[in-house]
Task: structure prediction
Amino acid sequence: MTTNAEEPATAIRAYPNGPILVRGDFELLDEDGVPVATDRRTVALCRCGRSAIAPLCDGTHSLLPRTPRS
Amino acid sequence: MRLPPARGPLSEWLIGRLCEPQRTAVSPAYRSKLPWADEDLQLSLWIAYELHYRGFEDAAIDGQWDPEVLAFRAMLEREWVAWLERECRVMPSDAPIAEQLRELVDAEDGPRLSAYVRRHATLDQFRQFVANKSVYQLKEADPHSFGIPRVDGPTKAALVEIQSDEYGGGRPERMHAELFRTTMRWLGLNDAYGNYVPEAPAVTLAVSNVMSLFAMHRRWTPALLGHLAALEMTSTLPNRQYAAGALRLGATAQDARYFTEHVEADAVHEQIAAHDLCGSYVDDHPTALSDVLFGASCALKLDNLFAHHLLDQWKDKQCVAS
Ligand code: FES
Ligand SMILES: [Fe+2]
Ligand SMILES: [Fe+2]
Result:
């Protein structure tokens, strides 16, 4: 895998009132350090704390009250 | 697949024309107050659009570009689009497009089909639900792929990222349409493309026809993108419930994989679709905002009507049975 300053190996982006998307080269481990089974190139990580399939997002955040962007 | 049986003068004319293009009968005129529920209209549109996807073995090879067929379709589309405009056009605001899409989705308080499927649906009802779904799901993502050559830059990248997942990322067995076939086979349904079209009610065909309308016409590209965003944004929660319903009815994890896959995949897709796809498109085409919302609103409206149709039918049966 080649890397340079303009093109990082992994891109992480937070979405308003939603998850964080991780794209690229990564290894995802759970709280016990066990790899999370996913063969997706891009994953959504829950940051609302309510997902039933944490650490992945399952869309539950859309049921929670939203905070407006400042 | 073969051409389905006609449901009235419109589909009869179209099927006749496709089988015998040398025939010169004039197409019948068309008027309808309720296009989404009109069996003859929706079947005719479905056939006319299908010529641009897999087509029919028994139709003329270049029926796709038969000017008579295209003029006929345009006539049908006039009423269909007029109804969509009346029912689904919404006023845009100054908020970011992703927020406006979210508001549209949240405002939709449709019937609770997924909650019903999860808790109460019988195996027969689940089978009926899946057979109806198969009309679109066996070509899942295909309508939106027509958008790819019509957009640029970050919009294209976002669209292709979503579509690549829908098509299994290079692995045919992970293609969403194929996962759907596994669910169909669990239910003892025939998974051949288009198999349930002849018995699908108008509303089921309308669900597909609205995406094909947006897919065929470059002019409706923003609506096509908005439509995709609405699908992705209303996927994770219902699919969780469908998965639970399937497991309750005895599905294995593999049989229910179509639904569970959509929980994980669409948690990703909904962000990409709302923010990256529609966001970048509206940045580049500010005047397209209203059409993006229109496409989303059409998707929600038809999904709603479809849910009503199934639930009403099931309720009536319950009354008869009790
Ligand atoms: S961020 Fe999506 S479920 Fe928590
Ligand atoms: Fe999908
Ligand atoms: Fe998706």
